[in-house]
Amino acid sequence: MTRLPARARTPRRPARARTTQPPVRYRIITASLLTVAALYFLTPVYWLIVSTTKNSADLFGTFGFWFSAHPHPLDHLADVLTYDHGIYLRWFANSLLYAGIGAVCATLLSAAAGYALAKFPFRGREAVFNVVLAGVLIPGTALALPLYFLFSSMGLADTYWAVLIPSTVSPFGVYLCRIYAAAAVPDSLLEAARIDGAGEARIFGGLGLRLMTPALVTVFLFQFVHIWNNYFLPLVMLSDSDLYPIQLGLTSWTGYADRQPVLYQYTVGGAFLSVLPLMVLMTVLQRYWRTGLTEGSVKA
Amino acid sequence: MSRDTLSRAAPVAPGRPAPRRRPRRATRTEARNARAAACFVLPFLAVFCLCFLAPIVYALHQSLYTTERTGPLGLGGREHEAFAGLANYAQALSDGRFLAGFGRVLLFGAVQIPLMLVLATALALLLESAGARAVTFFRSAFFLPYGVPGVIASILWGFLYVPGISPLVKIAGALGWDVDFLSRGSVLWAIANIVVWQFTGYNMLVLIAQLKAVPGELYEAARIDGANAWQVARHIKLPLIRPALVLTTVFSIIGTLQLFAEPMVLRPLASSIDSGFTPNLHAYSEAFVGNNQHVAAAEAVLLALVACGLSFGFLRLVGGRAKDRG
Questions:
Q1: Within a domain: residue B124?
Q2: Structural domains of chain A in order of their starting residue, each with its CATH number
Q3: How many angstroms away from the CA of A2 is the closest CA of chain B?
């Protein structure tokens, strides 16, 4: 008697598995489509890795998708780093400075503004918020040119500030922080802290920032990548190559490569080194990207 | 650039609980609120005004003025600013190359945006379908190019396009197919490929996020009702990711109009890219090569206007259709 139900259950398991598992035909089609797409997305990256091991002569002389007879990746990368008194390292440090400091400031400013817009009813609040939202829709490069005219009339062009100051503004960050603070920071908690006699600054620093952390990570990541990838703003703002971020430096190398073919090799090596940290960041932090995306598009 | 950071903004303004009013202490609370709020909002507003509002005002002002030189034949002498009315706009709009640049990016957007979003949607649906294996690997592989800056991506693809160095051209040649990615007719699509390569994975991730937010019971119910994978995708998943698609489209439109880095980097490689290839490139050369700030400012204003006009137009279009459907 006790065995019967058990035996009755056994044949059902494969049957259920079959209904949730699509037929083999579908799975093969899915897998092949995904593989083709992966080939498309990874081929340039693969080419970059292969080409990093080659010198300029081999870049032109050997087949691009396979290694040359004498791969010397480490020597080539060392050449990139030491060329022109280590200018590449300086560009890398500049990029880190712009993106790191810019993103931290942008995150803090957005957090404070978003928190206030969500938690303090004050006159003109919606007007402020609407202006910020309009800022999200303005194309950044249309702003960069007038910003250059403005900054050069103020004597700020061609300084670190010229890139840093605009990088600290993230209208989208304010938007995200407001949504998140409205949902994640309970009014009752703020009220309790006020009754306990805490000042607004302490409540924000101790309570608000901590509760908003997931949104802040997202804002930081997006702003970091945005600044790191930005090309137009530093291009119009900077003429001193000591202030260049990596992207600008590499394009200046490609500009001279006609006359100095070794720069082709340095451009490839430099591109490889500059892509490496961001790719690691993207892959490792993919979870945060996804949470950020859901917060932005679904919670509202 | 801004398209990527912004695509996930939701259209709906966040709902907030109505502020609780306590009549007796109202004025005191309000004053305290306003003071605290000001301290939190003002630092952001200050840089926002400096970097967003001031340049707009400055550009509008610049675009209405022109530099005049006094002296024989207008050469030498002192320069001074003179009010020019809409002359700079007239000059920009009568410049055939500037208009051709606009036409070019509009054509570019009309082909590239649908192509990219269809591809992103297809990949998102495939990855979220029950038949997919190694989902994490594929998702990371598709998303990876988003971490490659536009300039580096253009340098990379540039190497893959240039005849002397490109393995792709070599393979095509070995198959008896003579391709020139950088010719006058194909260079625009060579650039489109770079943009698709960079941003498809990002848009796919936005769509996946939206798909994941859908309760699983909905799919379960459809499956029990006998819907196959295709029907679930067509009738359940696609309508659900519509809001995300609308927003990615809007930000793609804004991004397309700003097209700059890719043609700028490919310029030394392709003679078919001139200084007026895109409106942005035209404004840039007007400012730095032609040394004509005022016309450049007018072009920047026109660019922003067209971008806003197109994105609002698109939002109204889809908004209107949603209403028709009920």
A1: yes
A2: 3-52 (no CATH), 74-298 (1.10.3720.10)
A3: 31
Placement of tokens 């992103």 in the chain = B120
pLDDT band, residue B320 (cuts 50/70/90): low
Contact B79, B256 (CB under 8 A): no
Q: Contact at 8 Å (CB) between A232 and A144? A: yes
Residues of chain A with Cβ-Cβ distance to B205 below 8 Å are: 289-290, 293
Residue B33 placed within a domain: no
User: Residue A117 and residue A106: Cα distance in Å, rounded?
Assistant: 16
Is residue B133 less than 8 Å (CB to CB) from chain A?
yes
Which tens digit of pLDDT belongs to each residue from B283-319?
999 888 888 889 999 999 998 889 888 888 888 888 7
CB count in 10 Å sphere of residue B175: 9
State both tokens at A65: 């998708």
Residue B47 placed within a domain: no
Report the length, in residues, of chain A: 300
Spell out which residues of chain A touch residue B301, defining contact as CB-CB under 8 Å: 142
Give me the helices (H) in B162-215, please. 167-174, 187-212
Q: What is the pLDDT of residues A40-57, one digit of tens each?
A: 999 999 999 888 888 777
Mean pLDDT computed over A13-34: 70
